[in-house]
Each structure stands twice: as C-alpha cells, then as structure tokens.
Amino acid sequence: MANQAKPSSGTLKSLTQALKVKPPARQELRKYSWLPDVLRVEGSIISRIIGPVLTVTAFATAIATANQVYHKDLKLTNNVVPLLSVVVGLILVFRNGTSYDRWAEGNRDWGAMVSNIRNLARLTWVDVTPAPNMSKAQHESFMKLKGRNAFMPNAALEGDGLRSEKIRMLKLMVSFAYAVKHHLRGERGTDYEDYKGVLVEGFDRFDEFGYERLLDSGPGDSYGTNGQSSGNAAAANNSRNLIRGVGTTYPDAQTPLLSNDHSTVEFHPYASNRSLPLPLVIAHELTRVIMKFKKAGCLENIGPAGMNTMNAMVQGMIDQLTAMERVAKSPIPISYSIHLKQCVTLYLFALPFTLVSDLGWRMIPIVTVVAFTLMGIEGIADEIEMPFGTDRSDLPLDKYCQELRDEILYMIERLTEVSDEVDLFVDQ
C-alpha cells in the first residue's frame, strides 16, 4: 500500500508565512453604557457635521443680535414651520431607513458568501480523495497531466500530489474574498499586500489593461491559450504583444462601482473589449478545478449530488457578489439627497425667526441642538449607505478577510483529511 504524496515544503511554507499574520483583536462585548457614549466624540458623527451645525449657529446668532441689539422686528409666524417639520421628519426617517437597509444587506450578503466559502473549503478538504480504484502509478500519471485549457497555460498538477491541488483550491477561495473586497471598492490590480501568498500563481500578472494570458509552451506542448497549435514563433510573439498592449489601443474599461477608473480582467487576448472582473475569473478557476477532480474520480465518495453541491456553493458566491455589486453601484439618487439637505437647511434657517421674539438669546443653543439632531441623522445615513468603503462605520472587510485566511490556514495545518487515515490506493 502506498501513501499519498505530500506537498512540497515551498507550497505550504508560502501559504503559512502569508497567513501567519496576527489578526486584529476582536472587540469584546461590553456592558450597556450611557454617559460614556454621550460624552464620546471618537466614532460619533460630530466631526462630519460640525461645519454645517456651526453655520446654522452663526446664522441664529446674527438673527438674535439683530433682534436684541438693533431691535429689528424679525418675528415670523409659527404656522408654517410645524408643517415643514413634519415633511422634514418623514424624509429623514425614510433616508435613514434606506441607508441602514443597504448596510444590512451588504453585511448579510458578505456573511452568506463567507458561509459558502467555509462549506466549500470543508468539502474540498475532506471529501476530495484519490479514486478508490486508482493505483499509485495511475494517480501519479494523472497528477502530471498538463492543463491545456486552464487559465494558466500548462498549469499542471505537479508531483506534490492531490493535497497540493486541494491547498491551491483553498487559496483560490481566500483569494475570491479578497478580490471581492477590492472589486467593490473599485481598487484595480493585484498589487496589494493582502494578496501576497494567497493569490495563486497565474493570477498575479495584472496591468492597466487587465490580466496577461501568456502563450508560453512547454516542451512537447505547442498549444496556445485557445488549445490551438501555435506553430509559428512570429505569430506567438505577435500574440504576446497583443496581450501586453504593444502597438494596440485598448478602450477604456470603467467600473460602475466606487471609483470611476477600474481596469477589469482581460480574459481573451484577441478581444480586448471583452473582460471579466477578477472574482469571476477566480470562480471560473474554482469550477474548473472541481470538474478536474470529477474527471479524475476524486469525488466518487460523494457522488454527483456532492459535486452539484460544490458547484452550487460557487454559484452562491457569485450570487452574493452580484447582490453586493447592486448595493455598491446603485447609490441613493443624488437629487433625493440634495433635496433633503435643502429642506433641512430651509427649516433650520426659518426656525430662528419663529423663536427669537419669545426666547431672545436663548434661541441660539436651542437652534444649535435642533441642527445637530437633524444634520446628524442625515450624516449617519450618508456615511452608511455605501458599506464597502473604508469609513469608520463601514463594514470591516479587512478584518473579515483576515479571519477567513486564518481559518483556512488552521484547516490546512491542524485538521485531518480522510486520506491521512485511510489509504485509498489499490496496488495493481
């Protein structure tokens, strides 16, 4: 009986070094407090609205000075302001509720995506095993097959064994989460610290036009990216120049997400106007690896239903990505936000005229408190309506991704595979 081949030290070492980063400490649940939160400035909305509030205070001070010092009769009837206050209140409630729904939906979709990644990682780690009737020689022969239709040309399952390919698939899942984070933020390219050691080889070649899909051919393998014989060296060089953008004008690829300039993935070298975002390319590779496991007989113990479940999890990851894109690229209409600010400003500027004759100088702090309340509600709504950014109140996607990396590392280093305990090779 033969034992399953173990991965090379370099494969696991690179992942281990990349993932052994101390995650940020979780915030402990604290007891309910009132006074500390009332006096707290850090984390509040004060810094965001202090300018507009002081502007209203200065205007109220000017009205009070004109009335009390220069004896100007600026009194305004109090019959109109209550009607305006009802309208402003309804608009603010709707604005705040809509923004929180967007924040909650983003959080819910991200959690569903992480759940699919965790389940798919568990199934891959435990249920992907060598075919029951495969000899060691057949297994090693399969592991050396060239993946000519792979995203990486000549991507091969090297002699490290099936476990190395499973580790690669787990790294793809972690890369998917990081790619989604950067995609939602409109951050292009792969030159980010959190990609190092996680983004698998072949996905780290990114320039302003997208991913380069090279046409390099190994010995005895003269196939290009489309599985067609390259034959002519000059044609191959021209293809490489086309991929790299030499002598080629590419149309601008703009993202509808958080920024206005986002280069997407160049998936086909001969059609520069066709592109895919990085998360979808990673999802394509995940599906391809699952099919490779199926053809090798590595999913026999879970059957067709198990394979369908794994594909459904990848599909679910894409569904959650699409749902988060809907939140990211569909902000609340700017006309609605502008009209809300105009109504709140009109109400706050009309309020001093109705209070100055009865309250005098005392009107100033009252108007300031009202301005702080109303502008604070609108400021909170504006801050949380786009939950995938880097504001203080946005979702902590960096922490979520780091925790997922640590979970996958723990699975690789500590959790046992079935194949570690049961020798599934049959000598022939």
Automatic annotation (TrEMBL):
Query: Gene Ontology cellular component?
Result: membrane
In its keyword annotation, does this UniProt entry include Transport? yes
The subcellular location is: Membrane
Highest taxon in the source lineage: Eukaryota
User: What InterPro entries does the entry give?
Assistant: YneE/VCCN1/2-like (IPR044669)
Its topology with respect to the membrane? Multi-pass membrane protein
Main subcellular localisation: membrane
- GO MF, any single term: chloride channel activity
Which UniProt keyword terms apply here? Ion transport, Membrane, Transmembrane, Transmembrane helix, Transport
- What protein name is recorded for this chain? Uncharacterized protein
